[in-house]
Every structure is written in structure tokens, then in C-alpha cells.
Amino acid sequence: MVAAGIFGLPIVIEENVPLAPFTSFGIGGPARYLARPHTEEELETALSYARQRELDYFLLGGGTNILVSDKGFDGLVIKLELNSVSIEGRTITAQAGAELARVIDVAAENDLSGIECLAGIPGTVGGAVRGNAGAFGTVIGDILTDVVALDGDSLRVSTYSAEQCFFEYRSSMFKKNRGLVVVSARLALSVGRKDKIREKRNKTLEKRTVFMENERSVGSYFINPIPDNGALIKKFENDRKVQCRNCMIPAGWFIDQAGLRGLRIGDAMVSEKHGNYLINAGAATADDVIKLATMIKQVVHEKMGIELHEEVNYVGF
Ligand SMILES: Cc1cc2nc3c(=O)[nH]c(=O)nc-3n(C[C@H](O)[C@H](O)[C@H](O)COP(=O)(O)OP(=O)(O)OC[C@H]3O[C@@H](n4cnc5c(N)ncnc54)[C@H](O)[C@@H]3O)c2cc1C
After folding, report:
1. CA distance 55 to 58
2. Which of 161, 220, 271, 299 has the most CB atoms less than 10 A away?
3. What's the Rg (C-alpha) of the chain?
4. 180-209: per-residue pLDDT in tens?
5. What angle do CA 255, 261, 267 make, to 5 degrees?
6. What is the pLDDT of residues 230-261, one digit of tens each?
């Protein structure tokens, strides 16, 4: 363990720390270095530490949307522990390391509505903002007013309006600009009734539990494609008896159609409950998961003419 004293602020840097326990997949090798900043100043110190030693760095939130390679990450992993949540009127300010679930609870306790439909999405506010996390037609970008972010190179702090964040399906400006670290986000909510908000939150959670129980995954592994094939869209709509939303078809449907549900390589497996959930069914390695994902992409392409792209973020490959 070493302490980096930059700006007179020490921060503990741990060495050779296994990353698997920090991830929902439970997969991956060690981080060469790990820092856990609790304040903005500590975050700056950690980033300076990486820059001075010319180390690659990686921001870790709840680890629910990453696959870490078996050899780990040869740089500095920064596990954000900035996790305060505060309220002013109808606005909640949440730091990036706060669990999204906690923000939803705090909103409900304070009769604030609008975010309860994101209940059940694991991970932190930082990860959710970067990937514009969402479910059942609502995304976090719909609720945000602005985001404070730190430029990892210049260490300059700036505020970005929701418009400047360029939120898209599972993407944002922060995903395209790797150097930006989300520090906090402000959410604009409306006044509601605690019992109604909790009821909606609980209903949302009930709808989701079927996917989540006892399975180690990253949620949806692939992004839902937008096919330009009208016949395919009709086939999906007839099969599922639903209208396709924003011209997107769930990646899981293609995986099912290709007959891949339950496919297993090593201990990596396509979940029996959800075609787009790849799970660690035992002691899966990242190599198992990559082989499985590669096979899925090949077969779906051969059988359906669709190219699948990963939603999961690869770390250390
Ligand atoms: C069971 C299950 C269900 C899920 N359901 C959904 C769902 O319904 N909808 C959905 O959208 N997602 C879902 N996910 C995926 C995941 O929960 C979301 O993508 C979540 O927002 C990731 O947040 P995280 O804190 O865990 O990010 P991490 O996995 O830690 O990181 C993901 C990416 O964000 C980056 N990052 C993290 N924090 C910051 C920061 N402060 N600044 C800049 N970059 C940062 C990381 O570097 C990494 O590239 C699910 C996952 C699981 C396991």
C-alpha cells in the first residue's frame, strides 16, 4: 500500500486488489492499483496519481455493467465513494457513487416522484448517467437537469445541462468522452404521495425480479438492435404480441429465435429466464463469457442477419 500526497491530500492506494468481488458478474482478475476517493479532492489526487505515473485509469461504480478480463486491469481503478444525496425543494442532488436504489428511496421518503420507475436497476448514479440507464420506457436522462463532471486531464470541473449531456439509448456524452468523470447529478422530480410512489416502485421491482433472482449477470449483455427489415419487425410483433418501441427489437428475442437460450460455454451461460442475460453459472472466466458472446453474435448474424453490439463495458482487454 502506498499513499500519494498531492495537494497535501493523502489517499491510500491499494495494490493487486481482486476485482471480481466488485462486480455483479463475480468475474475478473486484479487491479494493479485501487483508490477509493470519498471527496472531490481525493478523486483529483487519484487522477493526478495516475497521470504522474502514466497509468491508465478506470472509474468503477457498482460494477454492474462491466466484464473485467481474467488478467485484470494494469492501471489504477478508482472506486468512487462519493455518495451523498441531498434535497432542495423538488431537486435531488446525488453524488456519482451513490446507489441509484438509495436515491429512489430518498425520493420516496420525501414525497418526490419521477424516478421510482428506475427501481431495480443496480449500480450507482455515475454509472447510470454515463450509460443513460433506464427501464420500461424511462431513462435517467429524462429526469436530469444537469451533471457536474471532472475532466480527468485538466482536473477542471464543469456543469453540463441535460441537453449538453447528449443522452441517447444507453449512451451519453460521458460514454463517448472517456476522460470525463461524473461527480454528481441533479434530478428534477415532482411532488407525489409517499404511499403511491412506494406502490409504483414495488410494482416495478416485482416486474423485474424474474430476471434478477440469484443470477450473476450484467443485466442485458447486448444493446437492442434497430433492424431495417420490416418483415423481421412484423415477425417480432406477431410473436410477442407487442408493438416494437422506437423501432428497437430486444436483443434477447433474436437470441431466442436463434435457439441459443441455455447455451453454455464453461460456466458462462445464456440465462434460461432471459435470452439477453449472460450469467456466471459457477466459476465462469471472462474468457468463457467472451467465447459465449462471440458465438451468440456469430449465430445471430448467420441465422437472422443481425449484428449484435455489447452494452456491457469491457475492462482490461
Ligand atoms: C440484474 C441487472 C439488471 C440490470 N437492469 C438494467 C436496466 O433495467 N436498465 C439499465 O439501463 N441497466 C441495467 N443493468 C445494467 C447496470 O445496472 C447499469 O448499466 C448501471 O447504470 C451501471 O452502473 P454501475 O455503477 O454499476 O456502473 P459500472 O458497472 O461500475 O460501470 C459502468 C461504466 O460506467 C463507467 N462509470 C462508472 N461511474 C462513472 C463515473 N462516475 N463517471 C464516468 N464513468 C463512470 C465505468 O467506467 C464503466 O465504463 C442491470 C444490471 C444487472 C446486473
Report:
1. 10
2. 220
3. 20
4. 999 999 999 999 999 999 999 999 998 887
5. 115
6. 888 889 999 989 888 778 899 999 999 999 99
Other Cβ atoms within 10 Å of 298 Cβ, number: 12
CA of 124 from ligand 1 middle (Å) equals 7
Q: What pLDDT does 136 receive?
A: 86
Nearest CA to ligand 1 atom 34: 127
Element spanning 196, H or E: helix 194-212
Q: How far is the CA of 83 from the centre of ligand 1 (A)?
A: 15
Whose Cα sits closest to atom 47 in ligand 1?
A: 59
Q: Is the pTM of this model over 0.85?
A: yes
Q: Are strands 180-188 and 190-191 parallel, antiparallel or unpaired?
A: unpaired
- CA atoms of 137 and 5, how far apart (whole Å): 46
CA 28 – CA 7 distance, rounded (Å): 33
pLDDT more than 90, % of the chain: 85
User: What is the atom index within ligand 1 of the atom nearest the CA of 128?
Assistant: 21
- Confirm or reject: Cβ of 131 under 6 Å from ligand 1: yes
157: which 3 cell numbers?
470541473
Ligand 1 atom having least distance to the Cα of 24: 53
Chain center to CA of 7: 32
Mark whether 220 is an active-site residue. Answer: yes
Residue bearing the CA closest to ligand 1, atom 6: 121
User: Is 60 exceeded by the pLDDT of residue 8?
Assistant: no
Q: Is 170 a catalytic residue?
A: yes
Centroid of ligand 1 to alpha carbon of 229 (angstroms): 30
